Amino acid sequence: MRRLSRPPVRRLVAALVVAHSLAGTATFAQYRPPPMTESQRLVREGESAQVDASAAATSGDKKRAETKYRKALELFEKALAAEPTSVPAAAGLGAVGLALQDYARVVERVAPVYAANRDSLDLAYPLGIALFKLKRYEEAVPVLQQVTVANQPEHLLVHYYLGNYYALIAMDGDATVAELQAYLAQRPERIANNDYQIHELLGRGHLLRNDPAAARLSFQRAQVGRAESVSIQMGLGAVLELEGKLAEAMALLEGLTRRFPQVPEVRERLGRLLLESKDLPRAEVQALALVKLGGTPPAHMLLGDVRMAQGRPAEAETEYRKVLEQAPGDVAAQIAVGMALQKQGRNEEAIAFLEGAVQSGADSLELWSTLGSVNRRAGRYARAVEVHRRVLEMAPKQALGYVLLGADHFATGQWDLTIDDYTNALKLEPEHADAKKWLARALAHRARDRAGNGRVDDAVRDLRRAFDLERSSAMARRLGAVLLQQGSHAEARKVMEQGVQMPETTWREHLLLGYARLGAGAPKEALESFEKAGQMAPDVASLADVSAGSALAEMELGQVDAALKRLSEPGTSKRAIEVTRANLSRAHLRRAFARLEAGDGAGARQDVESAERAGVGGNSSSLGRLAVFAKALAQAEEGRFGDASAGLKRALSPTPEWARPNTRQLADAFVLYRRDQLPQARKALTAATKRPIPEQAQWTASFNSALHRREAERAYASGNMKAAEKAFKAALALSPDSAALQHNLACVAYRGKKAADAVSIWRKLEGTVPQATLNLGIDAQERRREMGEAVDAYRRYLAAGGPRAAAVREWKERLQMLYGLSDPANPAPTSNPEPSSATASDNTP
User: Fold this and answer.
1) What is the signed CA dihedral for 557, 560, 564, 570, rounded to 10 degrees?
2) Nearest-5° angle of CA 624, CA 626, CA 627?
3) For residue 268, what are the contacts with CB-CB under 8 A and spacing of at least 6?
4) This prediction's pTM
């Protein structure tokens, strides 16, 4: 049967012919790769030897493994010699060199090839690890970071190395945690038993991140693998330190010293904590024990620091020099020697030592910083500034240089430069605590100088900024004081009310708050502040200062007698004596005016004379003229009208600052009133009030009322009831609540044949105005002939202590004798047994 699937021969031949014609002549042969170069052949042999070495290492045959590795290393080196740019040869050499721990050879051979092939992870991996092992971290880290970005499982160890670097050298907590978590995510389960190392490093990373809870968890996980690991236990101690539990941390470390007495790191950390806690005896015990363990540089360094803290700088110097014998380039020890020399007063030796250290090549920020500071403490300010400018050049992006320059300029009182320095420091590091602290204090010093030179507004600006930087009671006091000097009492009060709420508040802050409240018009609250200051005052002089302030508050509250008692006994405090000198005469004048208001002219004059003895600055001074004014008013009260008028003229010509434009006219009107020249007084009062002054409205109303009343009394006495009624009504219109005026107007009504109306008003006023009770008795006796009611009224009047008691008692007794009336066994109490403060003219029907 014919098979249709097989193509005809002619067609196949034709196809071959076509193909031949298209391809031209061709030789058919089997494919073979091109022959290897000598370098490639050596690389292949090296890789074979490397495989054999790995197998031997896995089987535990260390000797055979090392022999094979060295054979592989030799082959890879020959390959590189044959082809210096060969990546496979360099990669093989790097891998074998790491296995043999020949890190220097790896760096030497691989680095040139890596420089031409920076994208090769096969080169970056061994080169980065070799550099890391050689502690060339600045070169190693960028190379390892290139490898870790690829995140390949075969490069797992790179995460571990970088985690170590970030945790122990760079002190970067976030980077530490990121690398080690990446390691844990990739590591094979078969090596999980070594995770305790990773968790311990993670704990350190979390400590750097100030996360004690996460750090504790990591160290506890590390404990699962190594329960008695000293380093893990110390990590837990560091967690306690971060949590502020120093006592517990030290207890943990003390336990470790008993369980592991030969581990120096434990004693060193415990000694440091005891030193920080100022427990110098126990710190010394640990330092001596540490030296006994081996006399290492850290041991002598700790003992030296203990000796410095004990105030034994010579012995500290000895210990620090022992550190330098073992580690000549130790910067911390060099700095410590310089400080120890300075503490001994050997400033020139300290400077020479530190200068020698920097000239020998110890180009350390800390060393240069200390050299400048020692020069400053020795009084060599120019050299200090020069050295610290070098620090600024070395670290231009750090605040350190500006902070040190600020300290130099602060020491010489160059406040503008100091402020500029610390301001620049805060621009670089806004939260720098020392820069904030000393900037605030420099501003406070400049403010003091400015305030002393009369630039109070500038001083206020400086201190506002200082208070923003340093929220302390002392800074509040400085700002409050200059605000008071500026006259900004309300703001000073606000600042000081914050200041007394802050820690370390003293009696001084409460004293200043008292003055601020006093200036802001709150004398009651001011007195409370002064009382609080008095409770906190540490000595007699302080109490005198507080008492002077209390006197001013009492004076404003009208407690002038109490104020004068305080001011008359100022004590020995200079400030209290100054306050007394400035205010004793004012207090006497304040009481003089109070006595004038009560009509006590003689007492007022005595106070004026006391004020003059205390000192009023002469009759031409503002206070002196006020004293003359008060004395003139007192003389008017005493009836010495000529002297009063002359005194008023001296006091008010020209018009002093404390007077108003119409004070002279008002005073003249008052003298005329006291002279009973009522028309002239009214004329003067009218002229004085043509242009009313709001603050005088109440006084002028009272004066008008007094004039009307006096006119009414004169009209009543002369029998002119119509004029008396008109005047009393005018007075009552100005003082509608006056019981005395209501009583007197009722007397006018009684004389005007309106007895019933008068009696009705007197009954309402009985108990308030004694004369009302007297007039009820007179009406009962003379108009209604009710002798019993009259006697009862007279009895009530006498019980109330009326001014005409002697005459009324005689009337009462005469009526009782004539009409046989006796006093009741239990007389009813009067409705107002206390003497009345109401005053009425002694008008009777």
Assistant:
1) 0
2) 65
3) 286, 290, 298, 299, 302
4) 0.64
How far is Cα 747 from Cα 778, in angstroms, rounded to an integer? 12
| Contact assessment for residue 529 and residue 517, using Cβ atoms and an 8 Å cutoff | yes
SS3 assignment, position 29: coil
Sign, Cα dihedral of 718, 720, 724, 727: negative
- The answer to whether residues 87 and 113 touch, using CB atoms and an 8 Å cutoff, is yes
For 599: left if phi > 0, alpha if psi spans -120 to 50, otherwise beta; the answer is left
Q: What is the model's pLDDT at position 599?
A: 85
Average pLDDT of the residues in 136-142 = 93
Determine the Cα–Cα distance for residues 341 and 348; give it in Å rounded to an integer.
9
Q: How far apart are CA 269 and CA 104, in angstroms?
A: 35
Mean pLDDT on 615-631: 86
Q: Token pair for residue 22?
A: 């298209």
Q: Give domain limits for the chain.
A: 752-845
Confidence of residue 726 (pLDDT cuts 50, 70, 90): very high
pLDDT confidence band for 546 (50 / 70 / 90): very high
Q: How far apart are CA 658 and CA 59, in angstroms?
A: 110
Q: Please report, as a single letter, which amino acid is at residue 752.
A: G
Q: Using CB atoms within 10 Å of the CB of residue 708, give its burial: 0 to 12 exposed, 13 to 18 middle, 19+ buried.
A: buried
CA distance 682 to 670: 9
35 by DSSP, 3-state: which? coil
Summarised one tens digit per residue, pLDDT across range 268-296 is 999 999 999 999 999 999 999 999 998 89
Contacts of 785 (CB under 8 A, 6+ apart): none
